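Let's see one such:

===
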Amino acid sequence: MRWIPCPTGKLCIEDDMPGKVVNGSQMTLRIEEPSTPQYWYVIMAACYLDSYCLWKSSVKEITVRYDLWLTNGSPLMRYLNPFGHQFSFEEQNSAEIYMLLFILYIVVGFCQWRSVILCNSASVFPRHQLLNCIIVLKAFGLALHCINVITFSFDGQGVFFARFLGEIARLMSTCLLCLLLILLSCGWSFGNSSEILLHAK
């Protein structure tokens, strides 16, 4: 528990050990739960303790300006877990997952490019063009998500524009994949000859 507002430019009254306060902060709350992850909440209540140690509602109008920084682990030892320091428990390893998926899609894109080259065709079939577009969009979206989560790992804010464009690319690739599956169910194939069955004979 901390009493606010804190003195301007100084530590809060309860933080009487400056060595345990993060540089540039007025207060530091350390919670150690090594065995079971839990959710923690920050609550600001406009109340105070009177002379009888009873809670009373505050009648003063005080404007509080605050900047909270929540980390998973000690801020002084962020080098031990650089890609999980800013993420909550359920979002741990997000950066590693996005980077792994991006590498996998690069490999898939290379395999698809090799398959198109080995077809020995003068032109690329529309179904291959559609699949190429799906892979490129997915890889592009994952690259933007990687930029966002890696940046978030270091500054706790990320890149909103990269996340926004990455999500759009992901949705577009999903829609095109659904379209490709529908066309394949109608008679498309990845061979040299395919017909789309539009109506029953």
